[in-house]
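sry for the spam today, last one i promise. struct tokens for design, 251 residues
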């Protein structure tokens, strides 16, 4: 994403800050000989070339949206299964997908559409729209295994192939849930960010902040690690390009 010099600098930083190498998302306890170091924050990922916006939503708006999501009807989040349909598979993705009132959806959509030109310029992609928002709640034990958000196979649905940039808005950040609106665990973790062979197995967990907007190319491998305590509230969507030549692939 950046020059080799920047990648080497990032790798030096990672040697001091990254958690132990990636392990199964079902293993909620760190190895006995590991020490949990501070996670890379938004600045780290911005230095790698991702579009990041701190304070994208203010604390009051985040609190209102958490309340709206908490009061909304919800269903289990789905994933694409081997038979090419979308279904609930809690061994792969365990989370609640809420359906808040239209006012909440319109508020967040409006903010995202306003920033879309900046995202488009940042990544050099002619983005044409925004896919439906997902208001997600991860409770203790919930997770999402490693995956990519965009597919390009002949049998891939058009909406998946149209995804160009993933967007995640954190409605709360990490913290002690007994004294705050925060949560423990549940880190959005990205990997495959460097071309060096020595870095292929490194996974980079993001330190979440209330109101933070994080974007990344939709083909980047990532996961949500298990939530250890509290409730993790996020809004997820994708900036899309439905005019791309790749949409001419037969389905």
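last one done:
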């Amino acid at each position: 994403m950046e020059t080799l010099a920047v990648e080497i600098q990032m790798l030096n930083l990672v040697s001091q800050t990254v958690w132990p190498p990636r392990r199964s998302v079902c293993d909620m306890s760190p190895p006995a000989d590991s020490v949990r170091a501070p996670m890379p924050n938004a600045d780290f990922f911005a230095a790698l070339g991702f579009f990041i916006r701190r304070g994208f939503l203010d604390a009051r708006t985040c609190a209102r949206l958490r309340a709206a999501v908490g009061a909304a009807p919800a269903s289990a989040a789905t994933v694409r299964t081997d038979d090419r349909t979308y279904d609930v598979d809690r061994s792969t993705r365990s989370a609640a997908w809420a359906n808040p009132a239209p006012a909440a959806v319109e508020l967040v959509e409006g903010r995202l559409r306003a920033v879309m030109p900046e995202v488009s310029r940042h990544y050099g992609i002619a983005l044409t729209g925004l896919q439906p928002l997902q208001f997600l709640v991860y409770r203790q034990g919930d997770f999402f295994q490693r995956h990519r958000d965009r597919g390009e196979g002949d049998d891939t649905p058009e909406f998946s192939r149209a995804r160009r940039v993933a967007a995640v808005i954190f409605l709360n950040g990490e913290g002690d849930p007994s004294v705050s609106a925060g949560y423990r665990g549940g880190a959005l973790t990205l990997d495959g960010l460097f071309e060096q062979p020595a870095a292929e197995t490194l996974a980079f967990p993001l330190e979440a902040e209330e109101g933070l907007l994080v974007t990344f190319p939709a083909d980047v491998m990532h996961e949500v690690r298990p939530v250890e305590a509290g409730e993790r509230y996020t809004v997820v969507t994708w900036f899309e390009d439905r005019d791309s030549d790749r949409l001419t692939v037969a389905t």
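The helical segments are 4-17, 42-47, 59-71, 102-123, 158-162. ok im logging off now
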